[in-house]
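Feature request, filed as a ticket because there's no other form

It would be nice if the structure record came with a short human-readable summary line next to the C-alpha cells. Right now we just get the raw output. Example of a typical job, pasted below so the devs can see what we mean:
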Amino acid sequence: MEAIDINDFNNHKIKEADVIQRILGGEKELYEILVKRNNQKLYRIIRSYLKDETEIEDVMQNTYLKAFTKLYQFKLEASFSTWLIRIGINESLARLKEKGKLYHLNEYSDRLQRNTILEIPDNKQLNPQDKMIRNEAKQLLENAIDHLDIKYRTVYIMKEVEGMSLEEIAIVLDLTIANIKIRLHRSKEMLKVKLYDLTTDNSIYEFGFSRCDRITENVMTMIQ
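Raw output as currently delivered:
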C-alpha cells in the first residue's frame, strides 16, 4: 500500500479512519502517526491529574498500549483523540486510586500548590532574554492553573489550552454540557485576570521534541 505522510495526515488530506483501518489490517507501524499527533494533548490532560513527570509518561505509554490493544473496539465515526483521552483519564484515576488519592482530590490539589513549578519540556531556541520572559510567563500561568482543583483544572486545560469543544469535553468526562460550562466559568474566575490573558500562549505544558520522540519510540517498540 501507499505510504502515509504524517503532514498529509495532519492536514486532513488523509482520513483518520483510513489510517486506523490500515493499522487494524496489519500495518502496525502507522500507529506512530496517531501517537505523535496526540502526544501533546494527552500529556496536558494527564498532567491535569498527575504531577510527577515520570509517572505521567508511564501513564501515557500505558494509555497508548491499551488503546492499541483495544483499537478494534474503536468506533470509526468518533474522534480517536476523544477516545484516547477517556482511556488516559481512566488510567490517571486508577493511578490516583492506587495511591489513595482518588477520594481526596482537594488535598491532592493543595499539595500541587506547594510543589515546585513544572519544568517546561524542550522549547524552540530563543535568544536568552526572550526565553527568560517566555518561561517566566509560562511558569506564572502554569502555577496559577496548578492551584485550581482538579475538576476545574482539567476542564480549563481541555477547553482553553487544547481547544476542545464543550461537546468533546462532556463526552470525555461523562458530564453534561451545562456542568462543563459551570466548571469552565468557575475555573476562569479562580484565575487572576492578568494570568488569564496569557492563555493565548498554547505552548504551556509543552510536550515535544525529545520527550515526544521517546514516548513514540517506546510505544512502537512495545507493540512490535
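Something like this underneath would help us a lot:
The chain has twelve helices and no strands.
The longest helix spans residues 80-98.
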